[in-house]
Records
---
Amino acid sequence: MALRIARFSAGGDPKFGAVEGEKGAEVVSVLEGDPLYRPVEFTGERFPLSEVRLLAPVIPRSKVIGIGRNYAEHAAELGNEVPANPLVFLKPNTSVIGPGDGIVYPPETSDLHYEGELAVVIGRICRHVPPERVPEVIFGYTCGNDVTARDLQRADGQWARAKGFDTFCPLGPWIETELDVSDLAITTTVRGEVRQSGRTSQMIHDVVSLVTYVSSFMTLLPGDVILTGTPAGVGPMEVGDEVSVTVEGIGTLTNRVIRRG
């Protein structure tokens, strides 16, 4: 069953719900518990989408897996070779924030970049997943922003600090459980100006290949997120910038860059 799963707050504890209805008049139908861990069951409670606060649609209990240089033009713009195999790195789950949350500009960097991406949410524990079974382990898809301190990435020679600060992994606005991701448009805007415009068909390693590869050496758990790489056009963000990542068929994830308070 195709659903648009949101995690949200309506003045109390976070809830999960299915976003339904026409654009501009959507409602959120509340679900029993977390749909990652139990069958979908509606409580009968409903809220207008305009009256709730959307949260990160998933908080990975284990890990966020990033894929570097998965678009040839992006690798080239930073002067890098295209890797033969997927280039895998990890982001801590503490880096995850939701729609509307602030991306904190740390004082340790002076070159903070956006990276708009398609994000894959894993739905079941799995290992050594063959290509033909990948659809069985995917819960759905959302938008991601792999925020990166580019100067720290260059200085450290590895990426844990550059990509691991708190707030460096915005996800949202919700999870689409059924979607053909073979050729979707990905767009990133900063202050309304288009900075990235690519398509998932430009990936060097597609979603099926990525899940198969990553699961060949690490166990994937429900709620794990795979960021599938970013198209060309990455660049700096400044305090006060509003950054939006739109993935066709999913929606738009918007965050503002703020100073550390």
Note: Residues 207-215 form the longest helix (9 residues).
---
Amino acid sequence: MRILLVEDDPQLGRATQIGLDQSGYAVDWVQSAESALTAARLHHYDCVLLDLGLPHMDGMQVLRALRGNGYAGAILIVTARDQVPDRIAGLDGGADDFIIKPFDLDELAARIRAASRRATGRTQELLTHGTLEIDTAARQVRNAGQPVPLTNKEYGILLMLVENRGRVLSREQLEETLYSWGEEVESNAIQVHIHHLRRKLGKELIRTVHAVGYTIDPAPAGPAP
């Protein structure tokens, strides 16, 4: 999952970026409204963490601009403003959640997961595909009941493919979600991660569509009762 963090406080912004990065998220951090709108226009983000007290332009204006420009991902307001009218304005303005500073990083991650579930139409943390189980809260994978250790990038690719079963995702789409600014991406990085996933989960799970990308086919329907 790739997150846009909009926070003008250098200490809090850096701490939040590091904490979420250690939890397996790709986080791009900007410190102004203008940079946030530019980043959202140029890149795909699954979630935006938006401070309200930004220089030059209030975060509510950024919220309205994002939704007005068609951004459909999760937006979580993270602010020191704790008055009820502010919460109502933020939620009515298009935010999916309203989080008061200071916050706990584990709770923030849980709220990100909850908002992302709603954005993708899921209702629970456990994803299943045949004998495969993905616990998105614990970021753990089991196959046929056995735990399968994955790196953060392998987990991210697997989650994207399972969430988009039946769709072909290009290398560029996978890279856009998995890597934040400043991360060096080798030209064959996705191919290497796919190779490792096939070795750990079986070569039949992920199908290569030549010159297009990768897909996991929908699970076959079970026998009729």
Note: Residues 2-120 form a domain with the Rossmann fold fold (CATH 3.40.50.2300).
---
Amino acid sequence: MKKLFKKHVQNEKGSQAIEFLAMFPLVILGMLIIWQVALIAYSIVVAESAARDGARAAAIHDENWEQVARNSAFGIHVAGITGGPGNEEARVEVQVKAPVISLPLIHEMEFDFTADAVMPMEEKADSDE
């Protein structure tokens, strides 16, 4: 009986499958975290580009500068756009909510941030010419 028990204890068949099952959820979680970081980075880049495009449009006296910024922020959730043309500079701020991956046991996760851009105002062209 001792030999039979010792034979089964020293048998390592199936140990790789058990190790795989133990590590698989951690690998998936790691991949989801990397994906979430990539989504946030993408949102930051798009929001900064939208703010810059809106400020550029406001700097050349385009009345639709806010729509230009919204169109440039395609693919992300824009919470608000503030600013606009001023006397010497056009300042535009774009408030964004980054997309969040829904994970079990993690419910209330939000990433809100603001991107802003400033452009010098261009001289207004005369409409007589």
Note: The beta strands are 77-84, 89-97, 112-120.
---
Amino acid sequence: MSAEAAARDRTTVGVPREAGAGERRVALVPKVVERLRGRGVEVVVESGAGLGALIPDELFIAAGASIGDPWSADVVVKVAPPAPEEIGRLRTGSTVIGFLAPLTSPETVVALRSAGVTGFAMESIPRISRAQSMDALSSQANVAGYKAVLLAAERSTRFFPMLTTAAGTVKPATALVLGVGVAGLQALATAKRLGSRTTGYDVRPEVADQVRSLGAQWLDLGIEAVGEGGYARELTEAERAEQQQRLEEAITGFDVVITTANVPGRRAPTLVTAKAVQGMRPGSVVVDLAGESGGNCELTEPGETVVKHDVTIASPLNLPASMPEHASELYARNVSALLELMLDEHGALAPDWSDEVLARSCITRTEETS
């Protein structure tokens, strides 16, 4: 292929400014733009796209991007699912990459297909070793797990670490993390670093060793629910009732409870009942990270912080957006790793549909990308 032909076939990638309320992340950062430029990719960034993450246009320009209209690009990379008006701005035959919510927002899938746009959902990337660098769910869950503990410490009426002072010794707080995936493990590690006595629980027994490796105790309720793809399966009615009874008894002994349990495409399971909250010591805190899918606490009000029975219950939504610098940096690496998998040696878009990662993460497909 001649240099002129290669230049014509180079892929253009557009980075729009996120329009969702409270969304401060950006899909690419300057360091990743430089990497993509090295692969022969042209990057167009909408003016102000990085401001929420404290990245001015000038840094994108210095990295080799141009400032302009991102919607006419071959590939548009986003964080949040595109709104209907945004889908209308995508070029027929183009590709969009982002969190597209295929299980909870089927109307987005229908709209992308109707618009003739190929869609790759970051949350649909298979959790296999080869795709770890593209696992945006994990990278953003790390941010959420870390920030959840800081929120709990801020709202707690008690110290996290043990303190020995001239006035006497203060016992360390006790923290229970329910759901020990990526967010849960990060929450355990962060709570431990802050000095609390930590305990983890999950219906998947194989994660017990991971919990103990962080210096935390394992709460064994005698209920197992091993599922596929690294997630827990949904419990039966009998298992759920037994779990709740045992959890109610255990939860009352903790100062802080952080919940992270989600089942993809389903309502979040109820782990912390109203009765359990009522039994907690006044001043205790529950941070519910499953608010987007209904919440793990029976008294959760998604997006709000409330006090019930003298216990603070916080359910922040889109927590990674509250730490936009590092969250954007991690997410941009995930997007870049997926995008580079689709490029040929000249920087042209040439997805190999026999590749498991691409085949499973693609939720709509047009003739132009076939």
Note: The chain has two domains: 3-124+323-363, 144-321.
